[in-house]
Design goal:
rod-shaped; about 95% helix; single chain
């Protein structure tokens, strides 16, 4: 205890310390009734405008993510539908082109067969003409050779 008293004496603390302490407590009590509620109100208002907005912002962010996910799913669905439609149209076009190609091939084949028959007929007629003239040509050749 003597050590504490010697510390207080070295700091220059005298008996007025109790009066000063009581004054601080009374001033604190008065300020806590008058000033602190207003300060508390200002701090709560500030907190509601800053910190609590984070919660609202997080809710809005979650809502934006949900909307984005819905948007992506709709886009994906639309993309798949368009791909299916394009594939269907492509197969329809391919089938119609194959059908048209077969018809054209058949027409060309018929035309080829008709022309082939004409050419073969012409060849046969020329062959028969040449064979008919062959006897006469051979006789003429023999005459020329023998002369």
């Amino acid at each position: 205890m003597d050590a504490i008293l010697s510390i207080f004496q070295s700091l220059g603390v005298d008996q007025t310390v109790f009066v000063q302490f009581a004054s601080v407590i009374v001033i604190f009590a008065i300020l806590s009734c008058v000033l602190f509620p207003k300060v508390k109100e200002v701090l709560e208002l500030r907190e509601s405008k800053t910190t609590k907005l984070d919660g609202n912002a997080n809710n809005l962010y979650k809502k934006a993510e949900e909307v984005s996910a819905q948007y992506k799913s709709v886009i994906e669905k639309t993309h798949q539908e368009s791909q299916a439609s394009a594939t269907k149209k492509k197969s329809e076009l391919t089938d119609s082109e194959k059908t048209q190609l077969k018809k054209t091939e058949e027409e060309i084949q018929k035309d080829y067969e008709a022309k082939k028959a004409l050419v073969l007929k012409e060849i046969d007629s020329k062959k028969s003409n040449v064979l008919a003239e062959a006897d006469q040509l051979s006789k003429t050749l023999l005459e020329k050779l023998t002369k």
